[in-house]
Structures are given as C-alpha cells and as structure tokens.
C-alpha cells in the first residue's frame, strides 16, 4: 500500500519535477532529411513565363525556387506528408563543404512550416539570400520541431548546384517583361473612317503574339470590330470588318496560327457609350481583343 502511494505520488509530481530527467534519459532522436551526398538531383525548368529550380528530398518532399514573369522570386519547401498545424522553423546556411570547420553559420530567416502544399514559403529577400548561399557552397538547413516532438533538419545540398543555377539565371533573363493581365484584354480606338493600326497598336500586338507563343493555355484570340452610328448600317458593318481584319492580318504576320483567331465584326451594335457626342462616338469606334484560356 505504501509502495502504491509512493508510486502514485511520483506519477503526480514527476510531470512537474522529473520531466527534465526523463527527457534527458529518453531524448527523442534528431531526424535529418537530405539527398545522399553526390546524388543530388537539382533540376531547372523554364519558359518565358516561369523559371524553376528544384531539388527532391528523399522521404520528405521537394524544395524549389521559382519566379514568374513580372513577379518577384520565392522559395517553397513542400512536405509530402503535410503538417496539421503551423510549426516554427529556422532557416540557416551552414559553411561550405570545403570549410567543414568554419564556425560561421548564417541565419537566413525565421518562418513557419504550415498546413497545405506550400509548407515553408520564403519571399523575395530570403529566397535570394538562400540562392546566394547555395551558389557559394553553403548548405541550406531548415530546422523545426515536428508535431511528434522530434527535432527535424531538412537540408539542401550545394553539390551539383552551380551548373543548374547558371541555367536558371539564363532563364530569368528570358522572362517576358509583361504578364497575362497586360494582354488579357486590349482595346484599340480609331479616328473617323480610320482602319489603320498605330505604332502603339502594333507594339501591343507584338506583345500579344509573344504571350500566345509562350503560354500553351491560350485557347484562342477573340477579335471583334465595332463602329459608331455616323454612317449607314452597311458602311458601319464594312468599316468594323476592315478594322478587325487589319488586326487579324497583323497577328498572322507576327506568327500567330490562323486557327487560334476568332474574328467577327458587329458594326454599330453593342455601343459602350452614347453616339450623340464626339467622345461617345470615339469610344465606340474600336476593336476589342481578348485572350481566352482553355
């Protein structure tokens, strides 16, 4: 009976006073995830719309840098087995492999590993720091305490990084200086009885042609010509046709496949402004170009 009392008393008080001893005696193991030395599989993928630089991490997930046209770069560490709650993480750069005894370790930043496919997300500044450290031979480490209480380190090795990084930088130089939003819808306006494209119009059409060539998700380009009500119906239909076909012909000359073009004209139908003022009629003399995605 006395022994049971002592045991019960130890169980009650042990959590408060003895947990340090227990944790010392039965310390949870430190878990590390990294590619085997010499078997790093850094990979670059690129297009005029996006550049990516990734490294698979066996039994864990994947880390990747990426940058989209007109957007800042970022880094994502994705864990295949997603966490269920946010966990604090410390991102550090360890000394180059050829300086194993160098005491200098740099803190790149503090972050969280969060539920969802993005895991750890680093914005521009921290992503660029990480790229620079890796290019200089530093190992990038992500340290956190797992939901099960294990100390975890996920490592990105600089081995085989340099050649792929050079390709990534070249890809960045080829990103389009504009995005889908800049070409999704375009409206050209015309003077009275005018059907000619201006230099500014042609510049925008070149951007449209470039974007269509780069984005396989563009299903077709819709081109619709319009007129004001100043002429007869037949004349208005004809001039709206000339305007739409001038756009079509220039896009084809730029290399846009004819099959991707849907061209029509509506004359004075569907005005966007009243036709009883000069400003209203000028707004209605137009061609509207839309890029339609699949």
From TrEMBL:
Q: Where is the signal peptide?
A: 1-27
Q: Keywords in UniProt for this one?
A: Cell outer membrane, Cell projection, Cilium, Flagellum, Membrane, Signal
Q: Which domain of life is it from?
A: Bacteria
Taxonomic lineage is: Bacteria, Pseudomonadati, Pseudomonadota, Gammaproteobacteria, Legionellales
Enumerate the InterPro entries for this protein: Bact_OuterMem_StrucFunc, MotY_N, OMP_bac, OmpA-like, OmpA-like_sf
Where is this protein primarily located?
membrane
What's the protein called, per UniProt? Sodium-type flagellar protein
| Keyword Transport assigned | no
From the Swiss-Prot or TrEMBL record, state where the protein is found: Cell outer membrane
